[in-house]
Here is the input.
Amino acid sequence: MPGPTELPQLVQEFVGMSKDYLREETLEPARRLGRYAGLGFAGAAAFAVGALFLGIAAVRFIVELMPGTETPEVVESHTLWSGLGYVLAALVLFAVVGIIIALVNRKDPTP
Here is the structure.
């Protein structure tokens, strides 16, 4: 059993070792995890921008497939068909999002 004069020194050693342990086992891994999280957010932003551009391309493609878009002389007909193209494109994009959500939430059967 340590004597009364050794007790403050033992407490200081214990506090120092505790600080070193916490720094080594919590702070350094948290910094590494922060780097990975930053890369994950950057990747998610890149995929979001790509999905946005693909959605715009899908809208333009579907609108071009609508009848009456090749002759814009009749403005009312062109506007109605163009509007239907936007509605159809929105439905297609919602269907794609629904499929992605269903695939993400799918439970794999355990063997």
Residues 7-105 form one domain. The mean pLDDT is 83. The two ends are 56 Å apart (CA to CA).
